[in-house]
Amino acid sequence: MTKSSWRKLLVAPAVLSLALGGALLTATSASAAPGNLVVTSPTSGQTTATRDVEFSGTAVAGSKIVIHQDNQAGAVLETVASVPASGAWSVDHVYAADAAVAQTAFVDGVVGGSGFSDAKSVSFALPAAAAQLTVTSPTAGQYVTSRTVTVTGTGIPTANIALAPSAGTPTTGILVGADGSWTGQVTFPADVDRAQSITVNQIQGGAGRGSQTVNVNLPATQTLVVTTPKDGDTAATRTVTFSGTGTAGSRVSLDGDFPLVQATVGDDGAWSVDVTFAEDAATAQSVRLTQVTGGVGTGDVTVRFSLPAATTPPTTPIALDTPVITSPENGAEVVGSQVTFEGTGTPGSNILLVAVPTDQVTPTARAAAQPADPTDPIVVGTDGTWSVTLAAAPGDYTAVATSFLLGADGQPVLDTNGDPVVSAPSEPVEFTVTATPAAGTTPVGTGTGSGTTPVATGTGTVTPTGELAFTGADITPAAVIAGLLMLAGTALTVVMARRRSRIA
User: Fold this and answer.
1) Would strands 239-245 and 251-256 be described as parallel, antiparallel, or unpaired?
2) Distance of alpha carbon 448 from alpha carbon 458, whole angstroms
3) Which residues pair with 446 in a beta bridge?
4) Contact predicate 423/342, CB 8 Å
5) Would you say the C-alpha torsion 265, 266, 270, 273 has a positive or negative sign?
6) With a threshold of 0.85, does the pTM exceed it?
């Protein structure tokens, strides 16, 4: 090989290398072609107005624009598929609320099948992310009804909410739901002032994402206690004692089926007041008791209990009419073995009828008027009449009637002096019974009443001396019977006095 040939051989690799190098350079140049790329927005150092950022600029028409996060290897944020013929391009990108304020975007692309040789990197700032935290309840300055306060609001889904009361224990670990809502509670101590606040903090990714403070007004601490009556009690009388404890100096008001009643809590914390319910008040009662301390409500208790059934006292006339025996008439002759007595009196009153043999109407005969057994009452009907039929032996008789009142308990009604309410005795009636009952027969009579109110039956008994006993005193106990016998004695005394005046 000639020297010239060696030279060619030696030169050829160099040419080849250069050629290869040139090819490589050409290849490199082909993969990084000029794109005339210009980024006009955002500009370096700029703080954008919003987190919705517009990327814009110019480049070779038909080229593709690619925007990366941070650098060429970063995630693709947006692309422009083809730059218009005008060469101007733009695309928007919305940064997340939790994206960092400091941002860098790397802009490159593809032109003619090759990458841009003039890629651009732009650093700028985003505005701070909106807190995305709201407190919907309680509202600012709200008067809440409990010292345990429920707090609600909205926030960033999956974020954590912490509630910090101005007094008491914080509540943490409240998770914002997928719908952005959250709820939690804080409890204030019973001894703190009513004016308090709650601070709500939102945390996501270890960083704060908003904070709000809400002022609230708590209810006063409830100190009212009602000791009597208790729920479900039945009072012994219609005068009920309400008692309990509260805050010294406070006013306790009772609201129920009666005029307003109030009591003051003493220095020892105790209070008591009596309430008398009307006779027509319902048996089932509900009374609301409230306590006010320094103009602030400090207690609200409702007690439900029962009253005893109302007792209606009998109507007591001012005076009873003097009864009248209308039958038999004075001087009448009754044929048969029975005598029907009729008369008038005060409606509703009872009649005490005494009939004895006329010749026995003497002071010594009074004891003989006592009946062997008390009999049913003789009640004056609503039309003012009464009637009773008694058996009688032949003979001359004198009868007299007196009115008196019996209560629902069977006891005589007393006047304001404590004496039985009785009328003056009737005019005496003298009559003759001419028939004799059959031998061996025990006379028994029945009574009937007139008027719309049934008249009680009255029966009489013929004593061994042949006298017609008094009737209309079927009551117990023995003490009451004795009282009515006294009435009978009074009636006999009147009869005797009248007979003496006639003889004289």
Assistant:
1) unpaired
2) 8
3) none
4) no
5) negative
6) no
